[in-house]
Every structure is written in structure tokens, then in C-alpha cells.
Amino acid sequence: MSVADKMREKLESAFAPSSLSITDESEQHRGHSGYREGGETHFRIEIRSAGFAGMNRVARQRAVYDVLSEELAEQVHALSLSAEPE
Amino acid sequence: MTAAAGSPAIEQIKQTVQENDVVLFMKGTKNFPQCGFSSRVAQILNFMEVEFADVNVLEDDALRQGVKDFTQWPTIPQLYVKGEFVGGCDIITEMTLNGELDQVLEEKAVSFNKAAVEKIREQNA
Fold this sequence. Notes:
The complex is a heterodimer of chains A (86) and B (125). By secondary structure, chain A is an alpha+beta fold. Chain A has helices at residues 3-15, 57-67, 69-73; strands spanning 19-24, 42-48, 78-84.
């Protein structure tokens, strides 16, 4: 399973998002530190979920980071994130 | 690996955020950033004429891991204002554009150039 698919699965089960997009932006970072052939190192994630209601920005991002802690520790070098309540 | 509370790196981080009103933990320095995300936040602060201490986490692995553990935040850069974690690159960018960063700085009595940040907003409107 690709890293993107794994993250999608985890985010869907944790947050039941009303919308979720995961974009592999690794190619834009070719030659930068952390880039690897084959990509899946730099991602942009946009997630919207009712579960984020009442949480501030830092708390929302922390919640997403927690769910993706394995990926962040291993393959994923950079993650640009927008986590919004509905 | 997790840096233990009370380790030299954690103590150093604690002291740095207590002693400086604004601290940016980043890859590289404010004058020579070595990562696009760190560079963006440093540029925003420079442009806003905010005085800040830059801490280059690439100089010390214990510091690089320590700041992630201390903040419970897995990525760099990390911005602290008056000892409080405000956010990483995405959050600071968003707060710059919607005016929330001005509010935080005003509330915490940190001086900045209001005209400059308004210019950033105009250009990104």
C-alpha cells in the first residue's frame, strides 16, 4: 500500500472527514533535503471534519500528526497541512 | 527516540523560550535558512521587523529531537512567542494572512511593523 493510501485510511477512520485530499508534492522538492527517488516524501493534506469543532489550530494539527506519527517518523519528510472544522 | 524531560537539550529549549520574547526553531538561520518552510516563516518575521532569536536545529541532533518532544510537534519550524507555542509553517502563514498573528503579537506586546504585514496581505489577497 502506498504511503498516501495508508494515511488516507488512518485519517478516514480517525476523523470521518467530510472532505480529504492528499497530494504528493515530492516532485516540487526534487533536489532538496529529504527528497527520495519515487516520491512520497512531501505531502499536502487538506482535511475537513466535524471532529475538529472547538479545537484551536494547534490542537487540530496535533490531532492529525498523532494519527500519522508512524508515517512522519519514517517515510514522510514534510507535511503541509490544513485541518478545518466544518 | 524521545528526549527525556530534564535532558540538557530540553533544559536549553526551555531557557531559550523563557529568555527571548520571540523564538524560531528552524533549519538554518534567519539569514541563511536551509529549508523552504523555515525560510518562509523567517521571511515573514524579518519583513514584519519582529525581533526574534533563531535556533538552528541542524546544528545539534539532540536539539532537533528535543524541540519536537518539547512542543509535541513533529515538524520544524516552530514559532514561540513569550514562551507559548504559536505554530509551524502552515499555521503562521495562515495567521499572517488573516491577521491573527498581529493579534497574538499585540496581545503579547511584541512590536512589529503593521504596515509591512498589511502589505503582505495586500499582495496575497
